[in-house]
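Handoff note, outgoing to incoming analyst
You'll be picking up this chain. Sequence as last confirmed:
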Amino acid sequence: MTTELTIPRARADAPPLAARLDEPTGAARESAVLFAHGSGIDIEHPWMRSAAASLVSRGFAVLRFRYPYMQLAVDAGKPRPPDRAALLEEAHVDALEELRRRFPRRRWILAGKSLGARMATHIAAQGAHAHALVLYGYPLHPPRKVEATRSEHFATLVQPALFLHGTRDEFGSVEALKQALKRYSGQAELSVVDGADHGFELPAAARRTLEQVLEDLAGRVADWEARTFPS
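Most recent structure output, in case you need it:
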């Protein structure tokens, strides 16, 4: 079941956030997920819809929200670059507050794809009220700029985290991410998809669709959540 929402902002002059709340029709897990989109994919992009649906099928409630720059891009019908980090973080925190308000008795998981994954770690490092992180394709560095790593804040992260990463991800190799995670303060687990690129697409020879990969990843998230927070 999907419900369209508008999330109010803590700052009065900030535009409200468009959002979608996906909830399971059967038994629900004890964790609710805030799912942030990547820099170039909207919450209605097939990738985001499929990834959210896969998590919902495992019993997670999933709240997808739209960063303000993406709302402008949707309204204008053409791409826009992301806002600066402070504005993205501000919107992310407001979306998390909405998740907490709607599910006060559940665990709150910050999930994100690429840019959304990075911003999830930013607000977690700044003390956001969340219990865990699930990061799809964390962008360790821009493509072909391996020296510009984005892991300096890992030492301040204490929430348990699951990093989902492909072996062909141009935003950071598996080995580079393993090295970066050595400075992660909490418990961080790396789950690798052999042959997957940054969007978790596999070569045609693999004979696995993106939807199948996202279903597999949702299963990994569910297994990890059960191990991390045993009943």
